[in-house]
Amino acid sequence: MIVRATVHSMAIPLTVPYTIAYVTITDTVNHFLVLETDSGLVGVGCAAPAPDVTGETPEMSYAALSQLPRLLKNAELANEAFWNSLLQTLIATPSAMTALDMALADLSARAAHQSCLEWMGGANHALKPVTTSVTIGISSLEDTLARARLLTGQGIHFVKVKGGHSVAADIERLKSLRSEFGPRLMLALDANQGYSLQDVGRLEKECRDLQLSYVEQPTPKKDLPLLALAAKATSIPVMADEAVQTEEDARRIGDLGTVRLINIKLQKMGGFRASARIDTIAAEAGMATMLGCMDESALSIGAALLFGAAQPNVVFYDLDGHLDLAQDPFESLVTLQAGKLDTPIGFGLGWSVLPSF
User: Fold this and answer.
1) Fewest Cβ atoms closer than 10 Å to its Cβ: which of 17, 122, 167, 259?
2) Beta strands per DSSP E along the chain
3) Hey, which residues does 161 pair with through a beta bridge?
4) Rounded distance, CA 7 to CA 62, Å?
């Protein structure tokens, strides 16, 4: 039985601000939901709202989470119908929905003496480090190369370049990265909805031999016919990101028949359960998935790693949102070595000592 639910909010500066197609990011807000049972078990979830992606402000997410202490008093952990109903009330605030789903998974797995990977049915999947991309924001050619040199010096071997302001500038940066670092550096481009069909055509003409892993959301998220044409116009695999948030979105993208990848973010989709359903829809439509993130605590990054270990359809990881947080109560939960992330080991989400926030 749940005897206490508390919400802790943190405003966190970024050590390395970055620019994407429509904004410069200098800080973030994470909310942490802590659930406690009468037997002394504790589960924790994280919400990382991002208005342009999750559709909610930090204030909206916090307001939704602040209703939970009253609603969860004396709730039984085994009452699946109650939890499913409650999760659906948070659908307009997906990061808050994620925090509840994550805390519930953490708590349920601990009650069963399992990791969340086992709890999700992934016990037979070998835990191994996974390669993650690390993002370079929109910047000058010189700054892009300098950032890439720093990252590769730290063992990073997959870089995702943010673009969308100027296809010419994006192409110049990509060509220069490939020229300097050669095939040892994996490259991808995130155009963040900034391209026209003509831009995609130019990218194909000038970058098709650069071996880009994918181009992410090149066109505006609401124009699915344009996305379909863009994906058809290039040999570079096209990934949908902002265009996919719900199961119905995933089905519509699958019906296009040309998009090859979907970016699943736990915070965008609403947690493990919703993300698993979307991953299944993607697989059935012949689309592989990537696990992406916001600027979020290592608790949430670790949750995504556990989810990925249970989902064979996941082929890419873009889980660098915890690396530049100036403070993180769970910073030791996930380690990055030689460009690879280690999946947390232990009961629930893998943390062992509840931080003070």
Assistant:
1) 17
2) 2-20, 23-37, 42-47, 130-131, 134-136, 158-162, 186-190, 212-216, 238-240, 261-264, 288-291, 314-317, 336-337, 340-341
3) 136, 189
4) 8
pLDDT grade, residue 56 (50/70/90)? very high
User: In this structure, are strands 23-37 and 2-20 parallel, antiparallel, or unpaired?
Assistant: antiparallel
Global pTM exceeds 0.90 = yes
**pLDDT, mean of residues 34-39:** 97
Structure confidence at residue 198 (pLDDT): 98
Query: Number of helices and strands (H, E) in the chain?
Result: 14, 14
Q: How far is CA 335 from the centre of its chain?
A: 17
Q: Identify whether the C-beta of residue 230 lies closer than 8 Å to the C-beta of residue 197.
A: yes
Residues of 234-273 as b/e, b for ≥16 C-beta within 10 angstroms? bebbbbbbbbbbbeebbebbbebeebebbbbbbbbbbbbb
Given its phi and psi angles, is residue 192 left (phi above 0), alpha (psi -120 to 50 degrees) or beta? left
For 282-319, how does the pLDDT look when each residue is reduced to its tens digit (9 = 90+)?
A: 999 999 999 999 999 999 999 999 999 999 999 999 99
What three-state secondary structure class fits 13? strand
In the chain the domains, ranked by start, together with CATH numbers, are 2-113 (3.30.390.10), 130-341 (3.20.20.120)
Report yes or no: 106 and 349 within 8 Å, Cβ to Cβ.
Answer: yes
Count of all residues that appear for the chain in the document:
357
C-alpha pair distances (Å), 263 with each of 19, 80, 116, 214 = 20, 28, 21, 11
